[in-house]
Every structure is written in structure tokens, then in C-alpha cells.
């Protein structure tokens, strides 16, 4: 079933929501209030449900309207960006890339690729939502972003996961910690020490607990935090040791911290690109994703014979 609506209808809806009223929205769009109301009514008829709740003093989006806001906003931004891109030529094309990215990837890896990309396409803008795994999947499913960088685990049939790389869980400890002298450790070696972990709501914690349970391993956590960066701060302060993805640890030499592989078993999270099934990317996002995949494989030293991620 096709939905017949115009860009002006979408602009009318978003203006009423953002300006919280028909009068202000009509002034901003330079149209009469009756004309604005007709635009909204036309859009609601095309959708088949009310998008706004109207009272004499207040206008607010319905539940469906709230759900559509991020998608409408992105559609308008892509449309406007495409108009500007038509005027540009060669390598100076403009556009907008919207991504939902794991905070660890957004902090440690993504800036490197964006810097390289901006050198070739200086007029392409980015909107990066650094979100936990579950929130990132929902942002992709809602159409709030074009694609996501996430960990495997989605059971949503409307989403596609293309594997990029394995990110192993490692031990993070101070250089003066007894385990720092070892080249690698086992899970049983961690038992005598105070462990720091992220909250059970974290996708990383869920993945780790499930993998340990399959091996009949249970660790006694002493500190529980919300963010991986906080766990590293506690480790640096000498309050304990932490188990976290390698990508979340400091890259290169650190004055206080070291990381060590944890074996028997080795547990990792699979990082990849999440997209909506049947969805298409804007030209800017397509170019960036190609560079992202290529750079990630080089940086992560992923063997050439592994199956490539589809773009």
C-alpha cells in the first residue's frame, strides 16, 4: 500500500510539533491556519490515523505521531540535503549521514574514519547517536538513522546484521596489579579480586553473562556501573579489575593500565552494521559505509578471506 503525501505535508506536521501550535507554525511556514490544517488533515488521512491531539490551548503528538517524528525529521533533512547536493559537483557534494553507534566504537574508532571521509567529502555532515546496543537497534528500526554499528543479538526480522569484526572481552588492570605480570589469564584467576562490571541492562553484560553461564562460570562482581568508561576510572583508581570489550580499553600505551587476554573460554562480541531490511541508503551514507568497512578491516586486521559485509 502506498501513502500519498507531500513534502509540504510533512513540514506542516513537524512545524506544528516543534512550535507547539498551529498559529506559530502557520506564521513560520508563511501560510494561513486553514491551509495548515488542511495539510495536517491530508497527512492524517494518508496515514490512516490521527497524528496530533488538539485542545483549545494545546497541541501535542499522538503516540503514533511521536513515533513518526524522528523518521519525518530525517526524511526532510535528506530531501533538503539532496537539493543542495544537486547544485554541487565532483568531490564537493554535500549530504547528511545519520548513524546509531555503540559508544565504544563512536569514541575510539569512528572519529578516525570520519576524519578520512571529511578529507574527501568536506561538505557532508554527520549526526551520530552514541547509544547502547538496544537503543541503537531501535533507532535503526524506527528509521531515525540510516544504519547502526552494533553488536549481534537482534531478533527483529526487519533488520539485517552484517558482521564486521570480533571484539574480545579482556582484563583491564593497573600495572601494579598481580595479574598484570601475566601474558594472559583464565576466568578462575579473577575470582580472588574485586571485579567491576557494567549494569545488567547493558548489552555487553547480557552477552558476557550468557557466555559464562554456558561454561558454568559465575563471577562475583563487587562494583557495578552504568558506563564502561566509569569502570576504567575505578580500575585506574586501584579499586579493582574490570572485564570489558577490548575496543573499550585505551588504545596504545597507557601510563597506569594494561589489558590482558582472558582464555578458557575466550569470549567476544560480534560488531557489525545494522540496517533495515529492504531499506536504501543515501549516496552520502553509502560512500561513508564503504569507507567505514574498508578502514575497519584494515585497522582490525580482519583476514581477507572472511566473508565481506554487504553494503
UniProtKB/TrEMBL annotation:
Superkingdom is: Bacteria
What positions does the domain HTH lysR-type occupy?
A: 1-62
Name of this chain's protein: LysR family transcriptional regulator
Keywords, A to Z, come to:
DNA-binding, Transcription, Transcription regulation
Gene3D superfamilies assigned to the protein according to its UniProt record, in alphabetical order? 3.40.190.290, Winged helix-like DNA-binding domain superfamily/Winged helix DNA-binding domain
Q: Does the keyword DNA damage apply?
A: no
- InterPro entries membership: HTH-type_LysR_regulators, LysR_HTH_N, LysR_subst-bd, WH-like_DNA-bd_sf, WH_DNA-bd_sf
Q: Kindly indicate whether the keyword Transport belongs to this entry.
A: no
Amino acid at each position: 500500500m502506498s501513502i500519498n503525501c507531500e513534502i509540504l505535508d510533512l513540514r506542516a506536521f513537524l512545524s506544528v510539533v516543534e512550535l507547539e501550535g498551529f498559529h506559530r507554525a502557520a506564521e513560520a511556514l508563511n501560510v494561513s491556519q486553514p491551509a495548515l490544517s488542511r495539510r495536517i488533515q491530508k497527512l492524517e488521512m494518508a496515514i490512516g490515523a490521527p497524528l496530533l491531539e488538539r485542545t483549545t490551548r494545546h497541541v501535542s503528538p499522538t503516540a503514533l505521531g511521536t513515533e513518526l517524528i524522528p523518521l519525518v525529521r530525517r526524511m526532510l533533512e535528506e530531501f533538503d540535503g539532496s537539493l543542495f547536493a544537486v547544485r554541487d559537483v565532483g568531490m564537493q557534494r554535500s549530504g547528511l549521514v545519520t548513524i546509531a553507534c555503540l559508544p565504544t566504537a563512536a569514541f575510539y574508532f569512528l572519529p578516525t574514519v570520519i576524519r578520512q571521509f571529511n578529507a574527501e567529502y568536506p561538505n557532508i555532515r554527520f549526526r551520530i547517536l552514541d547509544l547502547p546496543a538496544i537503543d541503537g537497534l531501535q533507532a535503526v528500526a524506527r528509521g531515525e538513522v540510516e544504519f547502526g554499528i552494533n553488536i549481534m543479538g537482534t531478533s527483529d526480522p526487519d533488520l539485517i546484521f552484517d558482521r564486521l569484526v570480533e571484539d574480545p572481552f579482556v582484563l583491564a588492570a593497573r600495572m601494579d596489579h598481580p595479574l598484570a605480570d601475566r601474558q594472559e589469564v583464565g576466568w578462575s584467576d579473577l575470582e580472588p579480586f574485586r571485579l567491576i562490571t557494567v549494569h545488567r541492562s547493558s548489552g555487553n553484560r547480557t552477552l558476557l553473562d550468557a557466555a559464562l553461564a554456558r561454561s558454568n562460570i559465575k563471577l562475583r562482581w563487587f562494583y557495578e556501573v552504568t558506563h564502561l568508561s566509569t569502570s576504567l576510572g575505578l580500575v585506574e583508581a586501584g579499586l579493582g579489575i574490570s572485564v570489558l570489550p577490548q575496543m573499550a580499553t585505551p588504545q596504545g600505551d597507557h601510563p597506569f593500565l594494561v589489558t590482558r587476554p582472558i582464555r578458557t573460554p575466550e569470549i567476544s562480541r560480534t560488531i557489525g552494521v545494522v540496517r533495515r531490511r529492504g531499506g536504501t541508503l543515501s549516496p552520502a551514507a553509502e560512500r561513508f559505509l564503504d569507507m567505514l568497512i574498508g578502514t575497519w578491516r584494515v585497522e582490525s586486521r580482519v583476514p581477507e578471506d572472511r566473508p565481506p559485509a554487504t553494503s
